[in-house]
Design goal:
The protein is of the alpha+beta class and 253 residues long. Helix content is 28%, strand content 17%.
């Protein structure tokens, strides 16, 4: 027996002994082919193992090379990404009866309350995430509920927003209501908020909603719960006063 035939015989015997792992073996001339079924659950492909010369009539249509596997995997990923994702609908806060009455009341554009009514309508129609507004008998006093972000996750705060007679030339009065106040370098224990938009940076084109969003952003960017350095000197002050004479140093009061 020549060396090449001996080699083929050894391979044939090895393949036969591994019968549980292979579907079938066959030889043709000097070619030897072993066909096996891959157990890989992800690709579920059929591998063709060849020994010796290339077999004629091999079922090459069953063979899947690495490029094909990579292509299939890529197509599966693209198909998965193309699937429409379920949109989580944010529950819109209920509008109180009194708020509806304020919105339904006809107000002339020359009336100082006209702008406040318009702002309230926009706030209720499309409330920013994490914020909701309620109003009582007085249209010029709002209570904004704030869902704490960041380190305040799970906490809820209340902002009192009132509009002075000079509004919008001057900013609204805004402060947190007790008993639950946020602890942070911009928030005083009397409820005041160190925010330049409530003082020198206020512009009449701004709104009460934009102020509430800025406060929400301040909460989200607060790194840790520490009191302002000058809290002891400020805590006794009446909250919500016009911050006209406040001094701001790098956004720290």
């Amino acid at each position: 027996m020549n060396p090449s035939n001996a080699f083929l015989l050894i391979v044939w015997l090895s393949a036969s002994s591994a019968a549980p792992f292979f579907s079938r073996t066959r030889s043709r001339g000097r070619a030897f082919v072993v066909e096996s079924v891959s157990t890989h659950s992800l690709q579920n492909t059929v591998s063709i193992l060849r020994g010796g010369a290339e077999a004629e009539g091999t079922e090459s249509s069953l063979a899947i090379d690495d490029d094909d596997i990579e292509k299939i995997t890529k197509e599966e990923k693209e198909e998965a990404l193309a699937q429409p994702k379920e949109t989580i609908k944010r529950k819109k806060p209920k509008t109180s009866k009194q708020a509806k009455e304020h919105l339904a009341r006809p107000i002339q554009s020359t009336n100082p309350n006209y702008r406040i009514q318009r702002e309230l309508k926009e706030f209720i129609k499309d409330p920013p995430p994490g914020l909701s507004v309620q109003v009582g008998k007085n249209l010029r006093v709002w209570i904004v509920t704030v869902e704490g972000p960041g380190i305040y996750q799970g906490e809820t705060f209340r902002l009192r927003i009132s509009f002075p007679p000079q509004y919008p030339v001057v900013p609204p009065s805004v402060y947190f209501l007790p008993p639950h106040l946020p602890v942070g370098p911009h928030f005083y224990t009397n409820g005041d908020i160190c925010l330049s938009l409530l003082g020198k940076d206020w512009r009449p084109t701004m709104t009460a909603q934009s102020i509430a969003i800025s406060i929400l952003s301040m909460l989200a960017s607060t790194p840790k719960k520490v009191m302002p350095m000058d809290n002891a000197a400020h805590a006794h002050n009446k909250p919500g006063q016009y911050q006209k004479d406040w001094v701001y140093h790098d956004d720290n009061c």
